[in-house]
Every structure is written in structure tokens, then in C-alpha cells.
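chain below, 171 aa
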Amino acid sequence: MKTIMVLDSGDYENTKRTVTRVTVRALIERNGKLLMQRDGAGVFKIPGGGVEGDEDHTETLMREVLEETGREVIPETINEIGVIREIRRDVFDRDVKFVRDSYFYTCDVNDSEHELSLTQSEKKAGFCALWSEPSQVISVNSAHGLKDCMKRDTEFLKWYMGEKKGGENAD
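prediction:
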């Protein structure tokens, strides 16, 4: 899968070890809107999460989308987009260099809606699923100050929208 970008904070000098995490993200677009997660502060996140155990990317994508949006992915609609690598000092353990590879896929979901299955931290943050205009997601997230997953998802959407329009980022 092609590398879209590397977000390297450069703030991990003198760390003692490296932790690597692999995640998958689902870009679900319909009628010009994206199915997103939004927290209680109004910040948007692309649905997805970490690969667990021996799951493959498809299994993880399907599980995460169902948990976070209540929608079922239609497996035959899954297509690769690319990967973003994040490198930074871990926010929880300052001795750790954190590396995350987020694999982005497009897919569609069926119209049935299920109850969300959020983690305690997602419930506490007030996450919900909703359809939103890409420009609104970029604008709202940018106004909140870009950091961590918000930065990754916002920078991805800027790149993706440029690709769709044949902008300067087009191959």
C-alpha cells in the first residue's frame, strides 16, 4: 500500500524504547458526506481502530466500523487508499517513541443501524456517529488545533479531497 504521508513530530529524542501500533480507518462516503465519529466537543474522527490478535485488516475494519458507527461494512466495497505513519513521543509514557501506521480504506455500509459499542473513554468523550460534509470536518478540526489523531485524520482528508479534485497532490 502506498505511503500517503509521514507525520513526524521529532519530539522523541532520548526515548528508551519504541512501541508500534497498526490501525485501520474507514472512509465511508455517500452523497458527498462522510460517516464520521464526533465527540462531545464537536471534534471529528474517521472510524477505525487497532488490529487485535490475528485479525486481518478487513476483519478489523468491519469490527471497528460496526462498533463506532453502528453500521455494517459491505465487504466487497473495501478498497485500499494508503497508509499514514505517525511518529512521536508517547502521550502516556514519555520514555516511549510511539509509531502508528494507519491504513486507510474506502468502503460502503448497508442501511441497517445497530447500537454503538463504544469504549468507556469514547462514551465519556460523548462520541456519536453522523454524516458530515468533508469541508465541515476539516474546518471544525482545524479550529480545535491539530494534534494526534485529529491531525492525522484532518491531514488525510485534506490530501484525499485534493486527490479527488485532481489537485496538486494528484499522482
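The CA atoms of residues 45 and 149 lie 7 Å apart. The helical segments are 57-69, 120-125, 134-143, 148-164.
thats it, cya
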